[in-house]
Amino acid sequence: TENYEEMTSDATNTGRKHHLTAKTTVRTTTSIFTSGKLITQLPEMSLELVKKMAKEQFFKKIDDLSDVADGVLDQFRKKLKALPDGGEKLLDDFKELTDAESLRKLIDNPDFVDNWKMLDGLGEDVIPSSLRKNPDFINKFDNVVKNNNLGLGSDGLSDLLKSPSTKLDAATGQPLKWDNPDGVLDGVKRASDANIEGLTVTHKKFPAPADGTDNFVLKNAKQYQAEASLDAGLSFEKGGVSFDNVDDAGKLIDRKYGHSSIFDDAGNVVDQNRTKSILEQARRQLNAADGTPVKWEISTLKGAEDIQDFFDLNRIDIEVVYKAQKTIIK
Q1: Residues 6 or more apart from 206 whose CB is under 8 A from it?
Q2: Mean pLDDT for the chain?
């Protein structure tokens, strides 16, 4: 009992805590197996002791790092202690970390605990545990918050991550979710780096059959878009018009799957309704872009060549390129 009280006291220095942790672990383990009881049958004090030992063993791994700056670990401890459960869930998330590089990702960022808390608060349906337990994802969230020029603070970026849940899947009636939350963060960074005035990043509901049936075209259109933006639900909006992506050159991208049957082999229009729709969309995009270059990426070579010829004929200043789809979904 004396060892327990000394080990769990904030007044005990780190070295002494580590010594007592090791010492008490042996005694407690012996006691547990001697009595033949499971850990869940231990008295409340022993359960608390086990939790404390787990924390101290975790901190010992950090203390063993050779170049932890003064006060960093103390600050980390204070933030953990301020969490509603004293930091038990966070430590459980990262208890398997052993290498120095991964451990530093937790303690070198003074806002790591706050960011973890915010992402944890979004729930499993928004941020899967595989991402919540990934230090790189949490630090990416922090980096995007601190370095984007879109006006997205931590609350704004959190709102974007949970925004699909305000819409329902037509087939299942369940709230929507991002397919790739990590890719959403990349999309925000890409939009910020493009430095396009008035650009915002939102979620769009990708078309899907209301009856939940399998649709080859829609599946592959979604796949084709996700191969560029990393999540087909991403919408890059300017002037009230949605674009599918922005590229490294600062161009607004619209991706089109297929489009090889609008013109015949001689370049004659086969589908008047579709060519009319293409022209209207192109002019609407150029008006919204307000001088920002627009580029269309088409999954078929014939579709790209036909649409570029059509745009040239109609004096539409949009670059059209062929970008093959990487993965075809059967």
Answers
A1: 222, 225, 232, 233
A2: 87
